[in-house]
Each structure stands twice: as C-alpha cells, then as structure tokens.
Predict the 3D structure of the following.
Amino acid sequence: MRSVTSVFFGGGTPSLASPSTVAAVLEAVAGAARLPPAAEVTLEANPSSTSASHLAGFRAAGVNRISIGVQSLDDAELRMLGREHTAAEARKAVEAARGLFPGRTSIDLLFGLPGQSRDAWAQRLEATLGLCDDHISLYQLTLERGTALAAQVRSGALPAPPQDLLADMYQTARSVLVASGFRHYEVSNFARKGALSTHNLSYWHGDQYIGVGPGAHGRFVPRAEGGHSREARVQTLEPVAWMREVQSQGHGTRSRAVLSPLEQLEELLSLGLRTDEGITHERWGHFCPQLSLQAVFGQPGEARALQQEGWLVLDSGGLRCTWAGLAVLDSLLPDLLLQLRRVLGAARHPLSGGPAEE
Ligand SMILES: *[C@@H]1O[C@H](CO)[C@@H](O)[C@H](O)[C@H]1NC(C)=O
C-alpha cells in the first residue's frame, strides 16, 4: 500500500473545525493509504480560533504541526488588514501552539502594508523573533480586488508601497532571519533547526499530491483508475455545490487534464527554482530522462545569459537561483521557459509518453 508523507489542513479556517472532524479525515486517509506516525500533519489556524484546549484536541486527533496566520504583531496594522484578531491574541495563540507543538509551530507574516516604513518593518521582525518558533512564512501583501484596503489604496486614501521599498523590506527580512539562524529555503519561507515544511516542499519538488475540498488542486498519476500520466485535477470551488457533488457522485472533482511532458517540465521549473536547492539533476531526470539539465540550459541562450548576470547557477548540484535571483524569480522565468520550449521543440526525438512516477 502506498504511503502518505504529509497531510495539510489549509485554506479558509480549518481551526474552526472540531477536532473530531479532523480525526475523522485522518482516519479516512489512514484507511485509504498508509499514514506513518512520522507523517507531517499540519493544520492552519487563525489566532482568533486558537485556544489552548482546542489545539490540544487537534493534537490528540493526530495533528503534529501548526501554522498560525499571525500576519502582524501590530494592532493598527491588523485593523487595516481587516483581521479579527489583536496582536495580544496572536501572541497568546503562538505561545499556546509552541507549548503543544514545540519546534513545529509556523507563523505567517505580511510585509509591504500601505504606509509601513522600513523601520516599522524592522521593528516587527525583532518582535517576531522574540515570539516565533522555527518556521516563518513571509508574504508581501497583495491588494485583492474588491477588498476595502484595495479600494482605499486605489482612491489614494492610503499610499501604495513603492517597489524599491518592498525589495528593501524583503532583503531586510532575509538578513535579520539568516542572522538568527534561519535558512531561507524557499522564496517566502524560512526555517531553522531543519524545521522545513515537508508538505510544501513536495509541491516545489514536483511530487504527487491529492487535493480534497472546495477549490482544491491535485497533481498525480491516477494508477487506481488505470492512468499512467500525471494529471492536474481541480475540485469544484463553491462549497455547497462541492458537498452536493460529493454526496451524489462520490467526489467533487470538477476538471481533470493530462499534463503534457512540456507542461510538467514547465511546472517543475517554475516551482523548483523557488527553493534554495533548486532543481537537482536527479529530479530533472525523473521528469525528463531524454535531455539533461545541461543539454537544455547549459547551451548558449537565455539561461547562460542569466548565469553570467549572476541570477542563476548550473553546476553539479543542478539548476538554482542565486539569492539575488530568488528575489526576482518571477522576472527570470519567462526567459527560462522560452529556452525550455525552444530546446524541447528542436529535440530530434520529441518527448513521448509521460515520465515514470514511482
Ligand atoms: C503550504 O501548502 C498549503 C496547502 O496547499 C497552503 O495552504 C499553504 O499556503 C502553503 N504554505 C506555504 C508556505 O507555501
């Protein structure tokens, strides 16, 4: 029987669920595949729904890692973000979680809030270091259309943070966290004492995963259904419709598409380069046995130019970004994808069939 290496309860506010629901889901997983005791089982929690007793219930249910949406440790910023919790509640939630899940409590933080200065951000980071455990996810605020905050920025009531300030804040965070022993192991993620997220690494490595729940995405080879190719699957987005479909047809899968070999490599490139390790030769060879990393990116072309400019490295470890490249990855990818398509298109023997999946 196949083994599951991680389970992630995320999206929305799974901490609002009762521990018995979480236990039932884990039982279903364990009934369908092997779920070893060492598997990483993460639950995303909001500070406003994270009492110590609730957390203890999740632990008893089988959760062994908590990710808390702290976002900020400043009440004015939290109000601006429209969050329900206060900084004091966030602190309490993190302390409770650390007590129950020592070394396995992650926090999410936002930077680049309208009007936030570099100094204010540096202060937030210092405060965070006094509170956090061994994993931090750092996100630049994106102004989502339709939110009050986006409207205020668009109308000019709040200032939009300038690009160079955002870059400076990211750089500051990296320096402060690295100086405190954190490894910057992915564009937005920092871990110390080896507390990397197994689950999210599996996305960046191009492993297989099943997404369950409204709007969830999956990538896997449906062997049980006789499939041999990696598929992209998406479940129905609207919760009520999703539930109805599960009840009537036994699943909420809305769309499924076989990924072509080129599409698989495009995903591997876009996701793998997000990590500090990058794409190893072994992992590349798993998806593309016909052409080595060297054969695709070692030739004169975009990738070589990016290496010469100091954004990219291709060596015995594989293909990866330099730190400077990681900070601007989104602007490097179009060039790399162009070279990938050109070299693959020119390959005498077009890639056929799908890559082998264990
Ligand atoms: C990790 O994966 C979960 C589940 O897909 C997602 O909700 C979460 O945002 C991811 N976290 C990071 C740090 O990428």
